[in-house]
Amino acid sequence: MNPTAPSSNSPAAPDDTPAASAAAADELAASGAPAPSDASAGDSTADTAQGQLPLDRSWWQNVTGRSEAGRPGAAMPQTEATRVLPAAPAAMAATAATVADRPFAPVDPRAPQPRPAGGLAMLEAREVSAWFGDHKVLDRVSLTMEAGKVTALIGPSGCGKSTFLRILNRMHELVPSASLAGEVLIDGDDIYGDHKKLTDARRSIGMVFQKPNPFPAMSIYDNAVAGLKLTGTHVSRDEKDDIVERCLTRAGLWKEVKDRLRQPGGGLSGGQQQRLCIARSLAVQPRILLMDEPCSALDPTSTRVIEETMSELQKEVTIVIVTHNMQQAQRVSQQCAFFLASQSTPGAIVEHGDTDAMFNDPQDVRTRDYVNGVFG
Ligand SMILES: Nc1ncnc2c1ncn2[C@@H]1O[C@H](COP(=O)(O)OP(=O)(O)OP(=O)(O)O)[C@@H](O)[C@H]1O
After folding, report:
1. Where are the domains of the chain?
2. What pLDDT, on the 0 to 100 scale, is given for residue 230?
3. How many whole angstroms from 229 Cα to the centroid of ligand 1?
4. Looking at the DSSP assignment, which residues form a beta bridge with residue 339?
5. Which of 8, 24, 251, 275 has the lowest CB atom count within 10 Å?
6. Would you tell me how many other CB atoms lie within 10 Å of the CB of residue 285?
7. How far is the CA of 369 from the centre of ligand 1 (A)?
8. Which atom of ligand 1 is nearest to 324's Cα?
9. How many angstroms separate the CA atoms of 283 and 206, rounded?
10. 366 or 33: which leads in pLDDT
């Protein structure tokens, strides 16, 4: 995808258009997030899948942890909505000169990369830049997230980690003012390529958010399979039973809930809810799992269980995690990327590589200072 001005077929998506509602449903599908009303187990997801989801402010903030400004359909300072990509604003031209002078060492995106083994997927970002309106927040980020490994994205608040993560599964484009340039490839196939569907990316790439967000009134069983309905995947009752058991087992929750599958998901502890959300993501058999600070709302015991779950899952799913917890990054990841931004410089990768090397022998003084807690 080449950076271009917003294309003429990039329609504005005002609050109540089908496009906005569909995007909202996609957001829900990606997150497996609670609908505003989920009292009638199962039915609410069918409605949302048909684009009937009203995205109220508190729901949006609860699910995404994002401000009102980012809510699809929220009033934005920009009149131009660029949710259909590829698109990059005129600001790119204005920043081009300064980009060349930026202090961060660029990563060579054309360097040969190893092919993944078996069914595991390799995820690769090439020269990804991102904007909210005219505000450039990421500058030419290139990173290979190797198949079957956990890649940790670290860096101070506001350096663009979450934006980068949301670009990896096409959630960034749901923000009306958002645009981006660059490529995101799964095993060499660009998810932003021509004729690529948003829903295809969502099936391949699951996402777990900071706050556990099961449908609270929906049963544990229905929560686990909610993503199937949202992605239009039809399965028989027997298959569903198998999927529920398999996903809850993979998420490390089966033993704790197998005797109360018909009880509401909202009745679980925070850590159990987060594992239920992981199970829900797994139900659609993603090849990649993105996790945005998945343990930041959890106690140390629940955090440990989630980390153990991740280490089991990485045998089957490529994982990318955003974390502010340096110990967690060292515990769970094999690869690590350090992002940094300043007031005048958009976020970029300072250094990336093996987690051990990043923490024990960083090449850049800024990485060393960050991982040693000198700033952050
Ligand atoms: N929806 C939005 N609308 C406008 N600007 C946004 C939006 N979301 C993020 N930003 C801006 O983009 C920049 C990067 O934010 P992002 O959340 O990606 O950083 P981060 O490194 O994940 O931060 P944190 O660790 O605090 O979550 C920040 O300047 C932020 O204010």
Report:
1. 18-108+117-371
2. 78
3. 31
4. 349
5. 8
6. 18
7. 22
8. 25
9. 9
10. 366
Pocket test of ligand 1: the residue of 63, 64, 83, 132 to mutate, having most ligand atoms within 8 Å of its CB, is 132
Average pLDDT, the chain: 76
Residue nearest atom 3 of ligand 1, based on CA coordinates: 70
Q: Is 64 in the pocket of ligand 1 (CB under 6 A)?
A: no
Residue 286 in contact with ligand 1 by CB distance below 6 A:
no
How high is the pLDDT of residue 7?
32
Of the pLDDT bands very low, low, confident and very high (cuts 50, 70, 90), residue 28 is low
Cβ atoms of 302 and 147 within 8 Å: the answer is no
Q: Is the interface score ipTM higher than 0.95?
A: yes
Least trusted range by pLDDT, from 105-109, 142-146, 280-284, 369-373: 105-109
d(CA 75, CA 81): 11
- Whether 23 has a pLDDT exceeding 70, the answer reads no
160 Cβ below 6 A of ligand 1: yes
Residues 179/131, Cβ–Cβ less than 8 Å: yes
Residues 209 and 211: their CA atoms lie apart, in Å, by 6
154 lines ligand 1 (CB under 6 A): no
Q: For atom 25 of ligand 1, which residue has the closest CA?
A: 157
Q: Are 36 and 59 in contact (CB under 8 A)?
A: yes
Q: Structure tokens of 342?
A: 């300043």
Average pLDDT over every residue of 133-137: 96
What's the topology of domain 18-108+117-371? Answer: Rossmann fold (3.40.50)
CA of 58 to the centre of ligand 1 (A): 18
